[in-house]
Structures are given as structure tokens and as C-alpha cells.
Predict the 3D structure of the following.
Amino acid sequence: MPRKRLLPLFVCLAAAAAAQRPETFEDELFVREVELVFEAPELTLLHPFPPDEDDLLVIEDGFARPVIKAGSVDDPTTRTALRKEGFDVAPWNAVVWIDEALAEPETVFVATLALAQQASRLAQLGSVEVVVAGPEPEIETAATRETRRLEQVLADLAGKARVERDRASTRPREHSGVSSRPDTATLRRQLDRLLVHLAGKRDPGPRLLFLVADGFAVTPHESKVFETGTADPAAGERAAVIHDAARLLAAYGWVTVALPLRKEGPGEEHRGSSDVDRFRANTGNWGDTSNSVPPVMAPNRPRNSNLNWEGALRALVQPNLSPLRALTDATAGTLVAQDALLPSALEKLGERWHLYYQTQLPMDGQLRPVEVRLRNGTLLRSRRLVRSSTPEGLADARLRLLLAGERLPESLPLTVEPVAGGLKLTVAPFSSPDPVTPGPVRISLACEGAVRHETAPGIDAPEKEWSHTLATACPASSGVAILVEDLARERWRAVRID
């Protein structure tokens, strides 16, 4: 072929190849590490423990996520090994929350006394903060691992509760009785205070909540919501309050130990047969002339269980404790109704495991389901939800407390000024040295009893001023509050507009 004819052919082929070349895009993929605490399965021949990361599977929002490390929460050797590999591992961060508006003086007395007697074990688990909500929360002692300090604070609280219990016993009883407590407003206000406090900045590590509160009489509709964990508008507001609180506690990783304690024995112990016991019973007595299978030795001593005790079993079926069971089920926690069972419950908490997995969820504040399984499909007990940033439910709680006149902490330099047709929101420059996954700014407006959420472009450069104009027609006389949250950094400020 002549040379002059080859040149146009090459040009055409090059143009065709360029047209077929796939278009490429460049984008950053932000990966974060999430910690989950889970309960080891009962020891059997089919489920050997401990596992490594290859034996575990995390399903987050329907997608399998890679597990990058697993270890025991209460094992110093494991924590040291994980730290050497770059993981931010810490012992438990515990909060003892004593809600005097939701608990009878007798409950407060028995619970604080029992906790004081276990102060040494509490300090072994990790740092412990003690808060009394009576009804507004006051920190009795900041997070500490000093056994004597914990013992003294809790014993003092037990003494005060005993005085209040004796004083209450001399008063005439109201005809309505305890069964009518608490009303919806009280329940919502107290749980709002609890959630806002727990959502504050915490040290890294697994989280543990000891909740001193009583249950209450429930309707059949409420009981169904509490036992199934499924929302039902027909169940009423109290059921919705408990359901929402359980979801938020789970999303923030607070393993909840409910303590509606009474000073009574755990009852009769019932020991069920283990897998090995059943195997032996089914294969003969191994006598001198028996040709049956020889005895099988268990690899380790079977773990004790609180469920062997009658008192623990009663607590699982009492209808008035179903609100507390709803809080513990969603968070993989436990309910302890007798003070004699508290030492065993603390021991089981020390046997928990935790893992780290990687996720690429956007920083949108949505709650997403999560579960932990062994590779053979066995479901392990863990919290049911995770979050990527501050959920809308917590924003609602903050706004309700602000409108009720309570002072809230703040971490965002926000100013709000009225302009034509709305409000101008300005965030002054602030320091944020740590790199973050990009996320939007969420603006929540409480107006005439309803809360509206919307998002605005995120704060890409905190060293520069950020502003946004929010259109609103709310009359100030109706009680207006606005909450601005930087979801990427979880900084926020709420402002009431009078």
C-alpha cells in the first residue's frame, strides 16, 4: 500500500481507539475503622473460641465488611498486642447513671450499695463515672479507676437513698401506685438527658452503661414493641420513647446493664444439661461390659450462666421489666434484678470480645443495622445498630432540652442573625487539626412543636468562615430553636431564638 494511504488509515485507527477508551474518574475513598463489642458463644464442641479475625464476619447494612482485628476486652496482653499493631485499644468506659426520677428510693439504695461492694471489680473493668439525675444530671465523680473513691461515692449515695426510702415509707401511699409511673413527659425528658450526656466526647474504648431505673406497668401494645424491637404507632408515645432510646444507645455503642435491683436471693439454681452431658446420655453408661462410645471430655469447663438461677429467669418474663429489656436487648447488654447476681454479671462483662472492621459509610448520621457472625453462620450477640455521625434522634433530644430551658455544651462557634426571609448562620474559623471524612452540615429547626432537618454544604476548610442562609417563617413567639451540626467533626451548637 502506498505510504500516503497509510497515514490517513493510522489517523482513523487512533481516533477510533480514543473514542472507545473508557472514561475515567478520580475520587477519594474514605475508610474508617469501627469497633464492635460482642459476647462469646456458649462453649460447645461446634464453636471453638477464641476466634481470630478470619473466623468472624460483620454484616453492615446488608454488606459484608472486612474484620481487621479481634481480641478480648478484659485481657491486658491482648490490648498491648493490638496497640503495637496501631489499634487504639482501651478498657471499658463505664457510666453509672442513677435516675432518681425513674427509680424508687429502694432501687437506688440496693443498686448503689451493691455497686459499692463491687467497686474493685468496676475499677478493673475500666474508668467509671457516676452521675445522679435527680432529675437534672449531676456528676458525682468524674471518670476514675480509684477503687476507694468509687466505693466512697457509691456508699454515700446508698446512705442518702436509704434515708429517702425510710422517709418515703412513712408517707401515705397514693392510690395510683407506682404502676402509673412514669408519665410520657418525664420518661422522655430523663432519657433525653441520658442520651445527650452519653453522646459527649469520650475516651476511646468500649462503652458500658449501668442504668439504675425501675420498669413500669405496660399495655399489650407497649409490651409487643418492647419484646420485638419493632416500632408501632398504635403502642403510644412511651413505647416510641423507649424504642428510640434503645436505638440510640446501640448506635453509640453503650452496652447497657439495667439495674432495677432488689435485695433478695436469686432463687433456686437450675442446671441444664450441656452438649457433652446429652452426648453421654445418648451413647450409654460405659460400664465394664459396655460396647458404647467411650466418655468424651469437654475441652474446657462450661461457662456458668445467670440463666441457671430462678431470679434471672423471672426477670426475663416479668411484663413490667420489658421496657428495660428493650434497652438491654438492642445494646447486647443485660438486666440484673437481684443484687446477688451482680458479681456474676460483672464477670461476664469481662469476658466480652471486641473487633475492628472497616467501613466506607458516608458521614450522614443515619443508623444502619449491623450483626456479627462466625464463618459457620452462628450469630454472636452484639449491638444491632451503628452510626456514621450524629443521628437525627439525638439532634431532636438536644433541641427538646434547649426549649425546656436547660443549658447545653457547645463546640461550634456559631452565630445566628435574622435577615430578610430567614436566618443567616455563620460559623467562625476554628481549629481542627485531625483529618476527617468529609460530611455535610445538618441544620435542625424546632418550630411550633415540630423539628425540620435539612443539610447544607460541609465545612471543607475550618480555618475559613462558613455561612448559610436558612429560609424560615417561624414566629419567634412559638418557641424556636436551631441546631447546627458539623457532621464530619461532630461539632455542634444549639441556639434558642426568643
